[in-house]
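Late entry, evening session. Most of the bench is empty. Finally got around to the prediction I had been postponing all week. Sequence below, unchanged from the version circulated by S.P.
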Amino acid sequence: MSTTTSPIAEIKPPATNVGVIGWLRTHLFNGVFNSIATICILAILARIIPEFIQWAFIESVWFTSGQECHQAKGACWSVITQNIRFNIFGYFPYEHQWRPLLAMIILVCMLIYSRDWNKWNKKLGYVWLFALFVMGLLMKGGLFGLVSVETTKWSGLPLTLLLSFFGILASYPLGVVLALGRRSNMPIIKSLCIVYIEMIRGVPLITMLFMSSVMFPLFLPEGVTIDKVLRAQVAIILFTAAYIAEVVRGGLQAMDKGQYEAAESMGLNYYQMMRLVILPQALKIVIPPTVGILISAFKDTSLVVIIALYDILNTTKSILTEPEWTGFSTEAYIFIAMIYYVCCFSMSQYSRRIEKELEYKSTSE
């Protein structure tokens, strides 16, 4: 007796559960409350978006004078296009503004090139040192025929990137060291780290900047001065490092005790245990909160306005104080918000990429 087998027809899910309709039902209309909220939000967007498009694009002006902007019905993007060089470079000498532009291009190119971990080696480190020297030379000048520019004229976007980049670069390892010191078994080291972290976290960044600009010079010997930009940079580094230290300490406490015991059983000393076993796992755990602190540090650079440093936010405010451009703060701040968004979003996306790469590496091993 022979039996024949026929293929069983594949049962497909209902059309309302897959595709666009399925996504809408799952994410936007998966209950009475969510359905009502979705309808209300769509109604608000239907009311706002057409008016915004009308204001921002259809009736807007882009390359006109301030007088013509006051007569326009839409947005005045001319406040940006007509003042873009001052907005970006601030008080840096006009004829030498190609120098900070080139320095920013080098920085961005180096960051993009260095995002691949496979390229991290000694050669890349030497390239970074050379790139930092070139960027410093372009900003400061004084060599190879470049006119020297005082740091008091460093302003706009280059100053924002300078304070944020070096603030992040230096505060992260300092925060790791402070976290290790706080968990140290040596009472003096532990006490000093605790006092430092709690003292710094107990005051706002504005206070730190004010102290570095006004109070700190009073304690210096007569005739000794320290550059204002450098003082602000140090204040940002010290402030950010204290917050990173607490995040890293949380990652160290989350480590299982067996990891320490396994490392000790292999004969590793404290330095080897932390470098090879504990820190790689702890830092991986705290990537999301660490990136949040670094993004916050990037945005907090705008607070240097209180010590008369003209970052990109303050150069924008200077433009808006001119009678010709008074009343167009919305357009100017939208432009600044887009710059901050691009930078912060890039940092966030890079952190997600690191998390995925580390997760894939751990699962493949």
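Two things to note before I forget:
The two ends are 52 Å apart (CA to CA).
The mean pLDDT is 85.
Will write this up properly tomorrow.
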